[in-house]
Design a protein that fits this description.
This is Flagellar protein FliT. By secondary structure, this protein is mostly helical. The chain has one domain: Up-down Bundle (Methane Monooxygenase Hydroxylase, Chain G, domain 1). Helices cover about 85% and strands about 0% of the residues. α1 runs antiparallel to α2 and α1 runs parallel beside α3. The longest helix has about 55 residues.
């Protein structure tokens, strides 16, 4: 896309939709739901391609929205890392319980 083809209003609409998608993803993660990131990744990639094709004036015009995108993505990433860490902790606990159960079962079989 050349700078002459850039449509600031459409770019802003698309960017605002992505910001809404990030907000929804954040709520899903907060609720412990699975978030599909492929669509989000594709839309952000498309926006980045468009942003790289902009001239300086066009970039300045959308800079606040791009900054919001960066901030929202950083928050989502932080939340997802926390959730992932919690899941790892829970899985380690399950694994420890399973190991203990297996050890007790083995001990019970060998002492009969």
């Amino acid at each position: 896309m050349s700078p002459e083809q850039f449509k600031p209003d459409q770019f802003k609409k698309d960017l605002k939709r992505v910001l809404s998608l990030i907000t929804a993803s954040q709520r899903f993660v907060d609720d412990g739901k699975v978030v599909e990131l492929n669509t989000l990744e594709t839309k952000i990639s498309d926006l980045c391609v468009q942003a790289r094709a902009m001239n300086g004036e066009q970039r300045r015009e959308v800079a606040p929205l791009l900054a919001a995108l960066t901030d929202d993505l950083a928050r989502l990433e932080t939340t997802m890392h926390k959730e992932y860490s919690e899941l790892q902790r829970q899985l380690r606990g399950l694994s420890n319980n399973a190991q203990a159960t297996n050890a007790y079962a083995h001990a019970a079989r060998t002492t009969r």
